[in-house]
Automatic annotation (TrEMBL):
Keyword Transmembrane: yes
Gene3D superfamilies in the cross-refs: Hydantoin permease
Subcellular location: Membrane
InterPro entries the record matches: CodB (IPR030191), Pur-cyt_permease (IPR001248)
Segments crossing the lipid bilayer: 20-39, 51-74, 95-119, 131-149, 158-175, 195-213, 225-251, 257-279, 304-322, 328-349, 361-383, 389-407
Membrane topology qualifier: Multi-pass membrane protein
Principal location class: membrane
Protein's UniProt name: Cytosine permease
Molecular function GO labels: cytosine transmembrane transporter activity
Length: 415
């Protein structure tokens, strides 16, 4: 724990990482149980061929969005909350800090409760053990996040290959149980979901994570590495999670890989998968919260913020509030993608692809062009019946471009 992971400054060239390290950390983040559940909602709504098209298009759009931000993060060495200072202003950036931080602490509470509840059900432990397990896991999962990027890297190098192996074993068994590819292609669809709605589900499930994946892509040694690693995580990794959930629902009427493996008789592998799947997402999630919290409070004490965030998430889990948080977290997912849209527009249109030094930059308290563009993008996403995350990003970018071109004369430059 000798380094702070630069919560308030750019990552220097001497601390940059290679393709394997960056990819493993990002894959560990995208191997997420909730993504499988989203895939489960698609499993019976389409034929297998249609399902592959939905998953491919949805994850290409998600991966493209995350990769665009990854390129900027690597070029600048900054993450999304630090880039928020340029596009929203010193005080205005606290809006994005709160939005991004709140979603992550909510998901941390959900993950902490989930592993305790599933473990009790799987191992037939007494029900009263749920709360003690929430406390233990809630504080234990933050240890690798406290260490920082190195801790996430160490865990992911072990966990990601192990989870891939478990998933392949489960998928092979599932294909055998359904009668191979012939049996899978013979499955009929219910047609209960439109193509656009399915793509929205895929994008919306992890677009918040894509916005904050800059916390690790900024450590990449080159923009090429950052883009490749991000595409691998958000196209291939996230796509595999969606496909696994869809096939689980189709074959066993269970979307979660742990439930599927239990149905297949792999009890030990199911428990290991549960731990690795939740842990590799939980430590990334609380790391995201800590980064946003450091920028919000302007403190370099990332480890302290990490522990405080883990404690808050654990209390939310113990208090049973994690179930109440899910609808709000999904709703906030609508309002997060426009942040990425404003960041991209600000970087390329206003700063011409190169930020000034954050330490010496003369930043306004509120950058009204960015704030208004974000508001318009969020409103468009909220009202859009089709692909709200994508609409939010596009409207934010277009609004920023128009406001920058025609509105700067009437908007205050500083406040």
């Amino acid at each position: 724990m000798k380094t702070s992971d630069y919560p308030l400054s750019a990552v220097p060239a001497s601390r940059r990482k290679g393709l394997l390290s960056t990819t493993m950390v990002l894959l560990g983040f995208t191997f997420f149980t909730a993504t499988m559940w989203a895939g489960g909602s698609l499993g019976t709504a389409f034929t297998f061929a249609e399902l592959l098209w939905v998953i491919t298009i949805g994850n290409l759009l998600l991966g493209g969005y995350a990769a665009a931000l990854a390129y900027i993060a690597c070029r600048s060495g900054l993450n999304s909350v630090l880039m928020g200072r340029f596009c929203f202003g010193e005080l205005g950036s606290k809006l994005s800090d709160l939005l991004l931080g709140f979603t992550q602490i909510g998901w941390y509470a959900w993950g902490t409760a989930t592993i305790a509840v599933i473990l009790v059900q799987t191992t037939n432990l007494p029900g009263w053990m749920e709360i003690p397990l929430m406390v233990v896991f809630g504080m234990a999962f933050c240890i690798t996040a406290m260490i920082g990027y190195r801790g996430l890297d160490w865990l992911s190098r072990f966990a990601v290959p192990a989870m891939l192996l478990f998933i392949l074993i489960s998928l092979y068994t599932g294909m055998h149980d359904i009668g191979g590819l012939t049996g899978l292609l013979g499955q009929t669809s219910t047609g209960s979901m439109s193509f656009a709605a399915a793509v929205t589900v895929i994008i919306g499930t992890f677009v918040s994570g894509g916005t904050q994946a800059t916390n690790w892509s900024r450590f990449a040694r080159s923009p090429k590495i950052a883009v490749i690693a991000t595409l691998a995580a958000f196209c291939v990794g996230n796509g595999l999670m969606v496909l696994t959930g869809a096939l689980g629902a189709l074959i066993y009427q269970q979307a979660d890989i742990v439930d599927v493996m239990l149905a297949q008789g792999f009890v030990v592998l199911a428990v290991l998968m549960l731990f690795l799947n939740i842990w590799t997402t939980q430590d990334n999630t609380i790391y995201n919260f800590a980064v946003a919290g450091c920028n919000l409070l302007r403190t370099p004490r990332r480890r302290l913020v990490t522990v405080v965030g883990a404690a808050i998430g654990t209390l939310l889990a113990v208090g049973g509030m994690y179930d109440l948080l899910i609808p709000y977290l999904v709703l906030l997912g609508t309002f997060i993608p426009p942040i990425g849209g404003v960041i991209m527009a600000d970087f390329w249109l206003r700063h011409k692809g190169r930020y000034p030094s954050l330490e010496s930059a003369d930043l306004p308290a509120f950058h009204w062009v960015g704030l208004l563009a974000y508001a318009l993008g969020s409103l468009a996403a909220y009202l859009s019946p089709l692909l709200p995350p994508l609409v939010g990003v596009l409207v934010a970018v277009l609004s920023y471009a128009l406001l920058l071109r025609f509105g700067t004369a009437t908007l205050p430059a500083k406040a």
